[in-house]
Amino acid sequence: MRWILVALLLLCALPLAAQSLGDVARAQRDDPKHAKSKHVITNDDLPVAQMQPSPTATISTASLKPIDRGQQVDVERAREQQRHVTELNQRLQLLQNEVNDLDRQRTSVRNSNVYGDPNRIQKNDEIRSLNEQIESKSRELAAARNELTEAMERANRTTVLK
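The structure assignment produced for this chain is given below.
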């Protein structure tokens, strides 16, 4: 009986001694000894990731560098740059579709590859082959993205003016 009374007293006294988390946070915020941050980190402080162009990115003659009066944009050069970017976009889309198809094939083979299957070794070999093909196509895709980025930058930078 004694232990029950002691336990009841402890349980009743416990909530009285406890502070809420909000009270602790307010006390800590208002405490002058608490070191405050000298610099608040904003988005401007974060490194900017290199932006990848969208697969449908295009260059229009309206987006070319502004020209002064009396100067004309070399329209043929701009059209050639536009054709090149369009071809790169098509190639990029084709490579992305191929990677997606290979990934679907790999998923299908993985799902059908069950323990005890007599063709399991062949399916494992097929999965390895598909992984290698996906890695190869992914490298080609990354190279095509880089080429597209360079072509777009070159087009914006080197527009010929007469």
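Interim note for the steering committee: Confidence is low (pLDDT under 50) at residues 49-53, 59-64. Residues 75-112 form the longest helix (38 residues).
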